[in-house]
Each structure stands twice: as structure tokens, then as C-alpha cells.
């Protein structure tokens, strides 16, 4: 048996053994049904919010309202970038749910912003990060995206603060590059493993995970793809794609 | 099981396939606790659409695709969206965990990890893996080849380390 075949056979065996280590389990059917119904209600709320958003947007356009950068709640002119620390989570954010005093869930408003950004506003949308403990979330979008800002603001529930932050690249462009890098035969031909690529949610670029001599590979990767590469790191620890 | 539990064909399906789905979720996440979370999240996503799935034979594939895409999407979104208020809960802890394998799988990007679980555990062809991942067959093959290479390196390193420790 060839070495590759042997390894594949060993891997298959280990995967099966590991999976079968999980014994038979009873599904919590009642709780799952309840979670499903809750999700159905949330989806319905999103549809209503999107419809309301469209109406408001049309009304806003009709009345000639101009949207400025800022928030649905308190104003945040010149808010510093929350990306100073980890690019993956808002600074100070916790995993704890943080409903507003009127019971609004910031993640619902953030989800509505994501759907708008990944839909009709993809040209300007980069990503979001949540800060539920402060009843807030951040929206990364290209500078001057007034219609998108207005749509997000209209979709946000009362009491939820939206911070708008200028970004460099829209998410869809970064995902295209992320796909291009990971599928690029150039590296395979040179024996380099691109372990993963990630379109960073702050729109600053694509993070690339490699296996090999990082010092040598970093400049090569940046030279090949240009400034949209935000960083090159060893392994796939932070790769999400 | 109560009458209410058996009334909905989707519940019957979940009751019958729950353990198998949980095992697949375990390999997709490489974490027994995240597996329960992912499966429950995916079931909650599919639940509102269950009546729209005309062919019951397709339910499992649909649910599996939901799990894979939810898993990849979670990474992309930095775990921003919680589908349920209920904390993740693993019904059964694995009797004996292959921690070296779990660590090697966790080091893979989620798409590569999902491709490994689909191909080497669920025995899907590369065409089916591509369909489940929502990518071309060539890309699926790339994911599998890279995952295999990385796993081979990491598992060999772990073996060497274990050998040195003895």
C-alpha cells in the first residue's frame, strides 16, 4: 500500500473510532422545537424590519434626507477604530448577552445589518463586530456609504447603538481574493501550503495562513497579491475560510 | 416518547438520526462541545423550513449542508450570531477522546476540516463534498489535499513528541 493510501486508511479509521466514541444520545426534541420556533419568529421580525427599512429608505429619499456617519443611538463622530486590539472582536466586548433596557437584542440588529451588507449594499459593506455588553455593534463600510448607513440605522432596534467605521475594502472583494489565493496553483507548484485565508471583518484585507518559512513567505505573498493582503501568519489558527 | 414528539416527521427523523448527526458535527468542529451547539443551531435553522423539504430522503443532506455552512459562517462571523438562548450542551461526552486527532483537526481551516469529515468519515465523493461545501470539485479536491498534507505533518509531529516523552 502506498504511503498516501496508508495514511488515508489510518485517518479514516481514527475518524470513525473518534466519532463512535460518542455514544447514543437522546435528542432534546422539545427544546429543539422551541429553538426552531424562536428562530422562525426572529426571521419573521427580520423580514418586517427589512420591509420597514425599504419603506423608510424610500421615504428618506423622497424627502431628500441626507444620512451622516453616526449611530442609531448615541452619536459617535470620530469614533476610534475598535480594531486596535484583536481584529476579530470588538474591544471590551463579552460573550454575555446584553439586551437593552427595553428588551432589544443587539445581535438581531447586527444580523439585519449583515443581511443588508451582504445583499443590496455589498459594494460598500465590509463586516460587523458585536459588542452586546454595551448594547452596540460596529459596522465597517466604505467611507461615504450614506444610503447603507441610513438603511442600517433604520433597521436597528431602539436602544441599540450602531457605530459606523470607515473601511478599506468591501467584503465581497476580499472574499474573491481569499478564494483566489487558496486556489492559486502557483504555491502548490513551489511546495508551499496555503493553509487558510480569511477576509477580515474590518475590511482591512485578507489574512493568509501558511505552512513554512514565514519570514521568506510573507514578502512573497504580499508581492504577489498586493496591498489587499493584510497579514501573513504561520498555520491556520486565525483562518476562517 | 410522547405523541407530540412523533407527530411531526421531522421529529421522527431527528430522533432516528440524532446520534449520527452529532458524530458528524463532532468531526466537523473537532470539539465535542461545539458539536452539540452546531447541531442544535442547524436543527433550529432547518426547523422553520422543514415543511418545504418535499423529499424526506433529502432532509439529512440538507441538514448536513446547513451544519457545514453554519460552521464556516460562524468562523467568518466570529461567532456573532447565536440562534438560540440555550447554552450549548453536549448530551454525551466521548468515552475515549483522540486528543491528538482533535488538535490536528482543529488546526485546519473549517472548510478543510469539513471536507475531511465529509470525505473520510461520511464517505462522500469529492463531487458530493464540493456540493456540500458550495464550491467547485477542483476546490474541494484542493481542500482535501491540503488538509491531508497538514494532518499528516501534524500527526507525525505529535507521534514524534509522544515518542520523545516516553
Automatic annotation (TrEMBL), chain A:
Region span, Disordered: 91-110
Domain of life of the source: Bacteria
Species of the source: Streptomyces tateyamensis
Official protein name in the record: Uncharacterized protein
From TrEMBL, chain B:
This protein's UniProt keywords: DNA-binding, Sigma factor, Transcription, Transcription regulation
Signal peptide annotation: none
Superkingdom in the source lineage: Bacteria
GO MF term (any one): DNA binding
DNA-binding listed as a keyword: yes
CDD domains referenced in this protein's UniProt entry, alphabetically: Sigma70_r4
GO BP term (any one): DNA-templated transcription initiation
Domain spans labelled RNA polymerase sigma factor 70 region 4 type: 99-151
Pfam families: Sigma70_r4_2
Transcription regulation keyword on record: yes
NCBIfam families, per database record: SigE-fam_strep (TIGR02983), sigma70-ECF (TIGR02937)
Sequence similarity: Belongs to the sigma-70 factor family. ECF subfamily.
PANTHER family according to UniProt: ECF RNA POLYMERASE SIGMA FACTOR SIGM, RNA POLYMERASE ECF-TYPE SIGMA FACTO
Name of the molecule in the record: SigE family RNA polymerase sigma factor
Species in which this protein is naturally found: Streptomyces tateyamensis
